[in-house]
Specification:
alpha/beta; eight-stranded parallel beta sheet; TIM Barrel
Amino acid sequence: MAINRPGIASMSLGRPWLHDLPGKLMQAAAHGFQGIELFFDDLDCYAVRTFSGDHLEAARRVRLMCERLGLSIICLQPFSLYEGLLDRAQSDRLVADKLPKWFRIARALGTDLIQVPSNFLGPDPQTGLPRTTGDRGVIVRDLQRLADLGAGAGFRFVYEALCFGDHVDTWEASWEIVRDVDRHNFGLCLDSFNLAGRVYADPASPSGRTPNAATDLAASLARLRTANIDPAKIFYVQLVDGERLSNPLDETHPFHVPGQPARMSWSRNARLFPFEEARGGYLPILDVARVFFEDLGFRGWVSLELFNRSLADPDPFVPADHARRGMESYQKMARVLRWEDHHQQQDGAPAREASSLVQHRL
């Protein structure tokens, strides 16, 4: 039965060292989420505070909590700053040291999926020289190496283009890489924020938009409609909006970080849930979502991955507030796109029963 299921990133419910992971999991479940993208930083904080840094014991405890709460662990993420490194020794170290540890942690969590964002390492801050290559062959071979090692251990990888990535910053580039990696356990994550954040939004511009924002986004979505992407290669999607800033994100802006791309600074401080226009949301997320679900026919995990300065508020009610806002956003998207009607038409009575169960939980 192919239906959409609501998920949320653990980091989207509060900062790790301010808001404890068990509390965030409980709020996610209480507000009707069915899955969690588990961020390593959350797990690391929990391990250090509760299990003297033992990540495996922390992972086992998180799995038990999620089972009791009825939450699935969608993935462990982010396995970042990996592909296309010019320092090939560092690439080897990540594969030899970090990857096996992540396999052990993911197995303890009970998830078979690890998320890999496109590399955003940037230039060396001392020399200004690049630290990554845009050579497609190198990037593909690096990711094939991950996929092949993962296949032998029973793991999948999901690759996502970040709008501030060094070389892979559009959905087209990420899909071409997934296609060329050509492994059954290597798929794509489509993110509304990163898609629109690259071709439509420009936080460094006074308008908050690229010069030809509407035209460029329409062209990008038209290409996505006709890209012949097998929905089975889309392992999950993320729906997130962005805040229209009152001033350009330049060197005078409070979000500015020296050496950091404006889109990265914006992403880390000003994401919003879809339909939060009252908070400044301005990206055409519904247009993007219609392509994901109506044109591509995606069905599966729909995760809300929000980063925002509001998550750094030490108020203990932050996780509950963000879980509430996230579920309100998800439910509105479901109503607008008529997911429940589609599920009933496609799957008949079993889908109606499942939908009723979800509504009962909410």
